[in-house]
Every structure is written in structure tokens, then in C-alpha cells.
Amino acid sequence: MITSEKLVGSENYLSWSASVELWFMGQGYEDHLITQEADIPEVDRVQWRKIDAQLCSVLWQSVDPGILLHLQAYKTCFKFWTQAKGLYTNDIQRLYKVASAIVHLSQQDLDLSTYIGQIASLKEQFLTVMPLTPDVGAQQTQLDKFFMVLTLIGLRPDLEPIRDQILGSSSVPSLDDVFARLLRILSTQTLPSNSASDSSVLVSQTTSRGGRSGTRGRGQRPHCTYCNKLGHTRDRCYQLHGRPPRTAHMAQSSDSPLPQPPSSSASQTSQASIASVAQPGNASACLTHTSSLGPWILDSGASDHLSGNKDLFSSITTTSDLPTVTLANGSQTVAKGIGLALPLPSLPLTSVLYTPECPFNLISISKITRTLNCSITFSDKFVTLQDRSTGKTIGIGRESQGLYHLTSDSSPAVCISTDVVIRILRYIKSTPGQGVLYENRGHTQVVGYTDADWAGSPTDRRSTSGYCVFIGGNLISWKSKKQDVVARSSAETEYRAMALATCELIWLRHLLQELRFGKDEQMKLICDNQAALHIASNPVFHEMTKHIEVDCHFIREKIASGCVATSFVNSNDQLADIFTKSLRGPRIKYICNKLGAYDVYAPA
């Protein structure tokens, strides 16, 4: 075992990566983390691949099972290491956390030794993200980065959305870029009204940490001298005294220092919006503007399902112990009942609070994921609710002005953007002369390429099988099909794709025999997954294959009889990639050329 501390995410990536590097250095294999197999001399490549596979299996054991789902597709140490680093490191966020801790560090009630220990720890963390360098240019870059972070730390709370966007960006902006961006926002920002008469509506800005009111100026809000934040005083600071028990708000961010757990996003539009303020012991909700897309709104800030429309309930029960709901204007109301609602046949909602004063219908994301054991996937146009046990889609929501409304459609096809259709039509228009060229290559051998995209579907996590078949070097058959079940591993996905391609090869063999075309020679099936090839050639059932349907294993019989011979191909030369994955332009042109697809109108 490399380390007893398994990788669970960005919060412990630094300590995990340090342990891994130290272990590899101690074993003398640190070059496997930074060197690709293609850079190894041909004579040493077989031994290198063998050692690298053993080391990669050890790497797999050093990460949490939940993390391994995202990384187990990478079968070399270099790819595994590089992908983990890309997923769980963000230098600008790490620097922001360290700098923020330094800025807000004070002894207060700590004893002197603890205070000095914290300073020493922050010093080491700071040198990790801002290492010393003799390069003058690098020093200037680090200095700009540090002052850029200081600028973000000192921003007012109403500018937190901009700070979160900068911290979450993939590239680190320069100090001048941040200054220019803030000044542009200042010149276009419209300050909200401070009138006390409009107490029924609270317009809040969308932030990644939840909606927060912007109706009061900086001087009117209390200031904490301990954490240097607005909205509370020192005697109510959660960082100093801890959070109160029984806080009902389930979507609360764990690092928020404010005494009021913030509600989720309320759309920052010209239409009227309402956002509730969550308080300890009360059910909280983010109430948003109505929409014609559907009566139910998916809300990440609500701790309970909420509806003010009695007609949407299947049944309502009135009890004496109903929670209090706090609305955005500060008023509180006791729920008049609790019952069952059925927005969709596959989506029953239990314990829905009935509040007639609130004409909005909210589905709490935190609650529905627990009660229905479902996962929720967001995209820019729609949201998908999927049953974790079966993988079946149980609900679809469409986006409107930043909010997701549950629709009655059960298929994500309704959410396909017109941009996709336009892009397809544009491709067809630009390639009128595209076609497959057939020529005599002097043989009639049947060769099939097979590939699969493991868990590629964002809605049900099913895989896609694809194959293409050549006769005499000419493409004559191809197919792309979604698999019927959710595969547990990439090897199983590739194995199912091989079985599908084998069926096509056998059918073509019989057809050629009836036509008396070509020689009766062995057919070749090419795959880029070593594990699937081993499963196909190994007659012994084991843990990886015992759950696969028996009819998939007929491929072993065909291999044993000599009808089909399997062969491995590098992923870079896998021609079936184009039928299973979304590829870039140069890759598409390369594969199309190998498939024999040419443009007859292209200049010679």
C-alpha cells in the first residue's frame, strides 16, 4: 500500500500526492509518473508496460472507491497521475485559501504555542503554492498572482459571484485583467433599491454559495471583528462559537461563516423574485418567479418540498407539529398541512409542506436525492433525475432564466438544442461530395474493428458499442448502438461490443459463402482493450464476467473454432472510435481517410 490516506478529492490531494511521489521515489520508479509509454525505447517497452501495470494497480488501491469511478479508465501511471492532478488541483483556489487564512489569522483566545504552530503551518503551505525562484520573470508573475488574490479577498459580499467565477476559471487571469473586469462590472452594475416600503419582494443575486440580499449598504450591516465578515457580530460568529444545533437548511455550504444559512439561487432578472431566509429550526426555501414550463421548480436551497397549490396534492394531513416557514420578506407562517404530491408518475414527493401564503411549488434537491435514491445531473439546458439502482431516468427539467422547471417529458430528447440540429445540417451542406471509395486491393479478408464508450450517456450511464467491418480493405458495414444494460467496467463494455461485432462477422461470412465470394479464410476482430481480449480468449469464468449474460460468451466458441481471431490495436489507430465518441476535427478527418471516405469535389 502506498499510503494509508486514500485520495477523496481536492481537500487531501496535496498530502496524497506527496505520499505517492515519496513512495515511487523510494521504489525507484518515479519516472513512471512523468514518462509516457511512447517515449520508452521499443526494446524496453514490454518490460516497462508490465511494471507500469503493476504500479498502476497499486495507484488504484490508494484512492477512494468513489474517486476510482472517474479514474479507472486510465490504465497507465502517467495517464492516471496526470488526470488526477488535473481534476483535483487548482493553484489559484489553493493560494486563495492560504492567503485568506493568513489575512484573517489572529491569536484571539488561542494559546501562544498553538498560534505559533498555525503560523508555521501557513508558512509551509504558502511556500508550496508560491515557491521561491531566482527567475525575475517568475517572481513578477507570482507577485501579480498574490496581489490578485488579495484583491479578491477584500471584495464586498455583493461581488462574490465575480470572485467565484475567477477562482473557478481554468486559467489564472492577470492582475490587470481582474482590475479591468471589476471596473467593467462597476460601470454596468445597477444598485438595488433601498426603499423600506417594498418589503414583500427580496431580489437576490445568484452566487455559488447561495442567494444573498443586496438591499443594504456596507455601513448598515454589522461587522465581525473575528472573521472580518459582514452580516453578524463577534458574539454570533460561527467560526468562533460553532454552529447552533438543528439547522434545517440542508443546502448550507460548510465553509460559509455567516450566521444565516443562505438560500439557493434566485434568478437575477427583471421579473419579480422572492428568496427566503433560512433560520435555525425552520424549513427554508428559495421561492422564485413563476414559469410556463411547469408548476414545480427544482431548488437546491430548499430543505423541504413546498407548495401553495392544494390541487397539486394527492393527500394532505394536518397535524399539530408542523414546521415554520420563513419567507423572504421576513414574515413567518406555519405550514397548514403535510402531504403527498405526484409531479410525475415516476417521481412521488412525500412530506410536502402546504403553505397557502406561498404560491410557488418547490422540490428540494437535498431531500429528493435521499428519499428516492436518485442522482441529479445539471447541464446548461436541462437537468436529469436518474434512479441510482436501475439507471433509469425518472424526471427531466428544463432551464429557464437560470432556474430548472420539472417537465412532464420523460425523455431528454425534448431538451436537444436547435444548435445541434443546425450543426448537423451545416455539416451535411458542407460535404455534398463525401463518399466511400471502393477499390481492388488484391485480397478479400474480412476485418472488423470494435470499440465502446464506457458510461458515455449522461442520462442513464449506459455505454455505446460501435464497429466497422472491411472486406478486402473496403468498408462495407458499420454500426453504433447503445447497450441495453449499464456496464460495471470498461472491460465489460468492450466485451459486449466485441460480441456485437462478432455477430456481424458471422452473418457476413454466411452471406459471402452463399454468394461464393472470396476465400473461406479466418476473420480478424480488432479491439483496443487488453482486458476484453483476455476475457474473450479465457475459457474460465471469474469475478469480472460471471454477471454477463451467457449469450455474450459465444464469442469464445468462435475464437476456439478458429472462425475468428482477435488482435490488439493501439487506441490511436482504433477506427471504430468515430462511432462511439465525440472527436475533434483533425481526428475525424484522419479516421475518415482510413475508412476510405473521400470528398470527390476536393482538389487533386
UniProtKB/TrEMBL annotation:
Biased composition (Low complexity): 193-210, 251-274
One of the record's GO molecular function terms: aspartic-type endopeptidase activity
Disordered: annotated segments: 192-223, 238-274
CDD domains on file: RNase_HI_RT_Ty1
InterPro entries referenced in this protein's UniProt entry, alphabetically: DNA/RNA_pol_sf, PolX-like_BBD
Domain of life of the source: Eukaryota
Residue ranges occupied by any Retrovirus-related Pol polyprotein from transposon TNT 1-94-like beta-barrel domain in the UniProt entry: 296-369
Keywords carried by this UniProt record: Aspartyl protease, Hydrolase, Protease
Keyword Membrane appears in the UniProt entry: no
Residue runs in coiled coils: none
Annotated protein name in UniProt: Retrovirus-related Pol polyprotein from transposon RE1
